[in-house]
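Worked example

This section walks through a single chain of length 247. The input is the sequence exactly as stored; nothing has been trimmed or padded.
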Amino acid sequence: MPFRDRQYNVYVMLGDPAVEPAWIESKWIRIAGALDPLMQSARGRAAVRSAQLSVGSGSPYKRAMSFGRIGWNAPGHKKWVHSPDDAATNRREFIYTEAWAPSWTICAKELIAPEIYFAIRNEELGPDREVAFNPTCILAIALDQDCQTVSQGRFGAEAIAQLNQRTFNLVISDIKMPDKTGYDVFAAARRQSTHTPVILMTGFGYDPNHSIVRASHEGLQAVLFKPFKVNQLLAEIRKALQPQPVR
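Given that input, the structure is written out below as tokens.
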């Protein structure tokens, strides 16, 4: 793939080996949340691959682990991250994880380099190896990447079909539609990424399907009641797209 033909902003992050590593589930969830807007801005769905070793109980032998297809979403993250039990028992040895957006399958097929590339590498591989930093994280963002793509669906089913194909930085949906409800669209967005903000809007005072209540309990960003001013919508969009700090 012609990486040399595409220019990138490249960021290298060096971790503190004394703190919880980035591949522990609780830490990775926060990192992934911060990276979501970047991954969602790519024109194709992101994919992940991870290299790890499984360590048998009482055995000196290690074998490569197989994860199958790993998507950039909550179920995908769950496949490869380590639980606190994994860290305590040393049953798995992390080597590296990398994410491509679009996926390397698309990049290989179209002979293009990815728009977004992110990788984590374990620097403590090998017995009794002392390191000054761990892990090493690399983030590469193509200079020509366009982050301003807007997609629209005429009705709920069409919007859900698009949400099933890729993730978005933000979803705005009406609540009452001929075929689906606002909650249906909200739920589809959350299946792709729990970090995707969703704004619902309605011109009805009565919500028979309880879309607002159900979505509010599950992390709805905002509700706008028609008629509303454009400035109100823009204010909610700006608020929803504000970067979330990684703690």
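What to look for: The chain has a mean pLDDT of 85.
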